[in-house]
From TrEMBL:
Keywords: ATP-binding, Nucleotide-binding, Transport. PROSITE patterns: ABC_TRANSPORTER_1, ABC_TRANSPORTER_2. It comes from the Bacteria. This is ABC transporter ATP-binding protein. It comes from Mycoplana ramosa (Mycoplana bullata).
Amino acid sequence: MAFLTLTNIQKSFGPVKVVHDFNMTIDRGEFVSFLGPSGCGKTTILRMIAGFEVPTGGSIVIDNKDQGNLKPNQRNIGMVFQAYALFPNMNVFDNVAFGLKVAGRPKEEIGARVKEMLGLIKLEHLADRFPYQLSGGQQQRVALARALAPKPQVLLLDEPLSALDAKIRVSLREEIRMIQQQLGITTVFVTHDQEEALSISDRIVVMNAGSADQIGTPAEIYNRPSTRFVASFVGTLNLIEAKVIDPATNRVSIGDQGVTLREPLGAVKAGDTVSLALRPEAGSIAEGAKGDTALTGEVVSSNFLGSVVRTRMRVGQSVISFDMFNSPGLVPPAVGETVTLRFTATDLLVIND
Ligand code: ATP
């Protein structure tokens, strides 16, 4: 059931249009991430939902209520920013209590709610500390508790993890997801980190220059990118140019090797060029493999990445990366060696845009 609806949202700063006609409905309790490179407009959309920016056009409805005429403090929204933005002169308890105090809630209710929130973020023992006495991760958990304390209808998270180091980032994102599911709160999360978005979202909006290129579940976005931009932004991917041999049988050539695809090539004719996508983890080396789902090439590099060895081989004009899982007995192919990569017909995607 639609809980947050964005209809034809647009935003220009002077003559520059930064959000183009954006449409989306978000369900109650859903966790949606806006993912995209710097400057694509994701923060601007979040700020419009919060009321910090006024849309140039379109409407924002939360739980059947148009937010158009509401100021930020009249909206029932909790927000967490990248820079923790805690009140430096207040201790943890007072930071978390802030929204409830402003709303004029009774003292006993505030005490109970703050205790509950500090329990949720597991920082009950630090209630008397001031922000400067906390680590970055602890400060961000307090910011989360402060945003949640007044029981907002929607939680907005603007790159809340980007200022933290890698290990804390991973543990805090898991904690955020657990708390979000526990409370069932509708959440919009902005990030430029694809792994982050893939790991915690119900759905992802991949933004490209002010528009959504694709909206889907993490698996849909990863397994079936609908545009070249999504394909290259989400995960590591080989983009391979191929020549159409026979559109009726989905047969193409890569260099001088023929391959038959599972999915239709679309409106193309023999001799046209099409773009294919292949994830590095899709194939495996199979010496002597032949036929429609194998490619042979010369190894140009091999890099040890820990869990995998990423090897690149040249096939015609394309260089194709593929991963070999690390194991004690693994002997990666040497540069200059000829290897054959076998994959399944569904691994090769046709990118139409
Ligand atoms: P980042 O991850 O860098 O924050 P983003 O995708 O969130 O990127 P936005 O912050 O939404 O991008 O900005 C989108 C575009 O709008 C950028 O080109 C930015 O320079 C511009 N912009 C944002 N706020 C303003 C403003 N107040 N005045 C003028 N231009 C702005």
